[in-house]
User: Fold this.
Amino acid sequence: MTAGLNRRSLLLGLAGLPIASGCTQVSQLGAGMGLDYTSTGTIRPAISIDPNVTNPEKMYAAVTEGSYSLPAIPYEKMPAKYRRQIVPNTTGEAPGTLVVETKEHLLYLVQPGGDAIRYGVGIGKAGFEWSGRAVIQYKKKWPTWTPPAEMIGRRPELVKFANGQPGGPDNPLGARALYIFKDGQDTLYRVHGSPEWWTIGQSMSSGCVRLINQDIIDLYDRVSVGSPIVVR
Assistant:
């Protein structure tokens, strides 16, 4: 057989490995044989090869950044669909675009080559949703949270944060925030982290898109200022 056929046969064999263990096995084999995982015509390589996206123990381990610490996430208690994973891109959007599918409670970051990184999200409850096309105008680590006046009106106990709640593990914006602007104007909606991992997959916020803190840290590092975002 030719080298090309050998490589094709190997990739087909690897693609059939179970995802739970295939991640580690494919990575080890690739490291030992000098394989790359770019697409080969109509044959797609095994998707689950990046432990930052496919190994839940690594993805949801405890995090320490300076004086801030985040606990590990008990990912076994989460529906598997809301864990970070690589999936085929079914959004119809271009690479680099963030797509929030509100009915599915899922966020996709479209990748080159036909795939997307998918994250579970929480969204706004009825009456607090936002949808449309916009851009990520800027982003912040450990952002300050300032409740809008309307929110303070509904929840007077938040008046103590009228000038802002400093960033930290208990901050409602979590470890990172991406700020959504449309036509140069702040929509007041954010894509941000949350210490309340159990709310992912639910509609119960004041409209922002919430991710597990470990997931927003991962997404933050992959998104550039000016990236398009679609919420639908």
About this structure: The radius of gyration is 20 Å. Confidence is low (pLDDT under 50) at residues 2-48.
